[in-house]
Design brief:
Blueprint lengths: L1 H29 L6 H7 L4 H4 L1 H21 L4 H20 L4 H11 L5 H12 L2 H33 L1 H22 L13 H24 L4 H23 L13 H29 L12 H7 L1 H20 L2 H21 L4 H29 L5 H29 L11 H23 L39
Helix pairs in contact: 1-7, 1-8, 1-9, 4-5, 4-6, 4-7, 4-10, 4-17, 5-6, 5-9, 7-8, 7-17, 8-9, 8-13, 8-14, 8-16, 10-11, 10-17, 12-13, 12-15, 12-16, 12-17, 12-18, 14-16, 15-16, 15-18, 16-17, 17-18
């Protein structure tokens, strides 16, 4: 019995490090596309906008897979879902690493997208397997790890790609995925005791179809023509699919995504701000990595190597990790209603600086550092706000929904950067006009300004003076408790 107890204690201590490692692996693998896009375009003889799909398709599949995996992960199949996803990611890395052409590279990258669905499962595991005092910081860390892993993985994979070829970076991803799979088999707790939930296959199909259609419209609008009949029909079909999906999800008893949670203003604020932060993050990452590798010339890029491009993103990772530690302390003594819009202001400032000051390479390092502070702050605040704003029985669904919207932002930001730059690329030229980067940055500034406004205006008190739910599903009558959840009270209330 003593040996069994010792084994259980050891696994308990190792759980958080393993969950963080899984999240880091997902972040690194999902971001393998961005700094490699110019290299992939050259090696596989495709345009830069086509090569951008090596990043977008991973995010798209992850966005579609996350709610379905989250639903499976709420029940006894969570352990099997985690292991199955890791197997798919491992195989996807191997497929992407094989020199069999661009189409198979996209297939492999699509399979890697299944790994993005692991994040809400890791958060749910931390929530269910750890005491409250350990689960809250673990959840915040897991949420930010997805962001920080992006910049930490870029220099390493860039170094491998530069010296061994870009496909070698996918072999590296396969090795990392294999170690993650082994760690998950050994450490993660069983989940057979959890209650089984029905998987909403109709909702999953509708959601995947509408998202794929809208992204295809966004990505191919420039080449097809924004007023072409085919594009207009596809856009109309996607919007109809969206309307049907919303109605279906609101009426079904076991929805893929519980849209009713958006009636809670804190959940709605967290969802919208998380979506916009994700969009701003990948819009900026895509712009910076592409500009850095653009050949040198008046008003053009810096001709940076893949390694240097990866290093430009390192301040982003460091700053996001720093923000995840600092923001809870600030919100502990101040108000989350102040911290959240200020975090959005930082993302806005990074996009504004990129739009106005990108003539020197060091400016890109500064831009990404500021962006890391903003994105890291948002993603540290959002999950804890959600956890404290909904009843315990709805936490898993709420976190999963927020994660889905974040991935929608990631995917849209990646596609949007390619659309804007392609629209500023003249026929016969491989490079966009320098003004294209400024237009994309200006668009990001406008979108982030909307996030600031939403973070300030939306979460105001209801007119009837009602309070938000607490973690136990009960309503709070405590006034003035808008500090960081769990700091001085377990309640989250919007009253001043």
């Amino acid at each position: 019995m003593a040996i069994e107890g010792s084994s259980t204690a050891w696994r308990g201590r190792a759980l958080v490090p393993v969950l963080v490692y899984l999240s880091s692996v997902v972040a690194v693998i999902s971001s393998l596309g961005a700094p490699l896009i110019p290299t992939i375009a050259t090696a596989d003889h495709v345009s830069l906008s086509q090569a951008q799909w090596s990043l977008t398709i991973t995010l798209l599949v992850g966005t579609v897979a996350t709610p379905a995996m989250g639903r499976l992960g709420d029940g006894p199949l969570r352990h099997a879902t985690i292991l199955g996803a890791l197997w798919v990611v491992l195989i996807g890395n191997v497929v992407a690493a094989l020199p069999v052409g661009f189409v198979w590279l996209l297939v492999g990258r699509a399979m890697q997208g299944a790994g993005l669905g692991l994040i809400p499962l890791a958060i749910a595991t931390a929530r269910d397997s750890l005491p409250a005092a350990r689960s809250r910081p673990a959840i915040a860390l897991l949420s930010v790890t997805v962001v920080s892993g992006v910049g930490l993985g870029y220099p390493l994979t860039g170094l491998i790609a530069e010296h061994l070829g870009f496909r070698a970076s996918f072999w590296f991803g396969a090795a990392v995925s294999g170690m993650a799979l082994a760690a998950a088999v050994i450490i993660l707790p069983g989940t057979r005791h959890l209650t089984r939930h029905r998987l909403d296959l109709v909702g999953a199909g509708l959601f995947g179809g509408l998202l794929a259609g809208l992204l295809l419209v966004l990505s191919e609008g420039e080449s097809w023509g924004w007023t072409s009949p085919g594009l207009l029909v596809l856009a109309a079909a996607s919007l109809v699919c969206l309307a049907v999906w919303i109605v279906f999800e609101l009426r079904t008893s076991g929805p893929l995504v519980d849209l009713r949670q958006l009636r809670n203003r804190v959940v709605l604020t967290a969802a919208v701000v998380g979506l916009i932060a994700g969009l701003g993050m990948y819009l900026l990452v895509s712009l910076v990595t592409r500009l850095a590798q653009t050949p040198e010339g008046p008003g053009h890029g810096f001709g940076a190597s893949i390694v240097v491009t990866g290093l430009i993103l390192l301040p982003f990772s460091v700053a996001s990790l720093l923000a995840s530690k600092v923001v809870p302390l600030v919100a502990h003594h101040a108000s989350w209603r102040l911290a959240l819009p200020l975090s959005c202001v930082l993302i806005l400032a990074a996009l504004l600086m990129f739009g106005l000051a990108r003539a020197r390479l060091w400016e890109l390092f500064v831009v990404m550092g500021i962006a890391g502070l903003g994105v890291g702050s948002v993603f540290a605040l959002v999950p804890t706000l959600v956890v404290s704003a909904v009843p315990a029985r709805e936490i898993g669904s709420a976190i999963g929904f927020n994660q889905v919207l974040r991935y929608v932002g990631f995917t849209t930001g990646s596609a949007l950067s390619a659309v804007v730059l392609e629209s500023h690329t003249t026929a016969g030229s491989a490079l966009p006009a320098p003004g294209g980067y400024g237009v994309a940055a200006a668009l990001g500034v406008v979108i982030c300004a909307a996030a600031v406004l939403i973070a300030v205006v939306l979460p105001r008190q209801h007119r009837d003076g009602s309070s938000l739910p607490t973690e136990d599903g009960e309503t709070s009558a405590v006034a003035g408790t808008e500090k960081w959840p769990g700091a001085t009270t377990r309640h989250l209330n919007l009253n001043k």
